[in-house]
Write a structure and sequence with these properties.
Elements (H helix, E strand, L loop, with lengths): L7 H19 L13 H19 L1
Helix pairs in contact: 1-2
């Protein structure tokens, strides 16, 4: 499946999933109350996916 085959609903789900993943990754560990930030390359990739999804949802 290519990106052009994804429906607006598919992009909405992708955007939602990426957003929830970023929120979960930034939440503190309940046992230590410390956050473990995502590696920069992972964070950048999630941001890029989110931006593409937002553009596709708006189209």
């Amino acid at each position: 499946m290519s990106a052009s085959e994804l429906t607006p609903l598919d992009w909405h789900v992708i955007h939602f999933a990426v957003d929830r993943l970023r929120i979960a990754a930034e939440s503190p560990d309940p046992e230590t109350n410390e956050t473990n930030p995502l590696p920069a390359d992972v964070s950048d990739t999630l941001i890029r996916i989110s931006q593409v999804a937002q553009k596709q949802m708006a189209a």
